[in-house]
């Protein structure tokens, strides 16, 4: 059996305007652009990675910004909210900060004993800030957000499903344990310090999600390279159809769409974002994998300008 999963590695979503996306996640949320590359399956589109200073697994929110993307519909069969972890006492700061720049947000509410502030990004992607006493130290030395309130990384994701039984069983096989329930929301937790929560929200009447700008493309979980064969076997034993191991340069991945329709990725921590850039230079230039480097001129000509 593979080792239990400690939490989320990264979350990837679809956006529209890359410049608006960049400005929101770096200037408003205070994250660092740690990798500027392209979608390896569609090199006409950026792949932008925002994270803490080092791009630590568990902190990395990534995007495919299609300039002609139609708005998607958030709904069943998707990750319908991405939650970031902030320190206890930071919600009022963030409410004021987000209101000042015109972000669409809700009033803070309590969920499982935590204060949660829900809002959306420029494409309507549902985001949340969850305030916790156990938030780890900040690792964003040059962030426009004060360290006392800075985002620490992921808290978790919400999966909206017509039925959560099969997904819950898979999460338990991945090392998550069910810890609580509120109405139709079931909470599963792993033994990590970032991205350790998956909430499964069951609603048989919810409309089916439609991919597009403002929706999550996939949720990636942290695994070890040695465990990839065991993860593939576990997924196949559960009736899923995992891919072969795919080299993404900064991590190696296996993908499978779980029974509720959400695309899961099982990604390694190694070799990380500094394998092809110095730490202090992360995100400053377009980085291509060696198998795309000979197409650099063509790729750069097809991308819109993005000047940090």
TrEMBL record:
Q: Is the keyword tRNA processing in the record?
A: no
- Domain of life of the native organism: Archaea
Question: Which UniProt keywords are listed?
Answer: Dioxygenase, Oxidoreductase
Q: What SUPFAM superfamilies does its record include? A: Glyoxalase/Bleomycin resistance protein/Dihydroxybiphenyl dioxygenase
The record lists the organism as Natronorubrum daqingense
- InterPro entries, per the entry: Extradiol_RC_dioxygenase (IPR052537), Glyas_Bleomycin-R_OHBP_Dase (IPR029068), Glyas_Fos-R_dOase_dom (IPR004360), VOC_core (IPR037523)
Instruction: Please state what the protein is called.
Output: Glyoxalase family protein
Instruction: Spell out the molecular function terms from Gene Ontology.
Output: dioxygenase activity
Annotated ranges, domain VOC: 7-132, 153-269
Pfam families with a match to the protein in the record: Glyoxalase (PF00903)
Q: Could you tell me which Gene3D superfamilies the record lists for this protein? A: 2,3-Dihydroxybiphenyl 1,2-Dioxygenase, domain 1 (3.10.180.10)
Under PROSITE patterns, the record lists: VOC
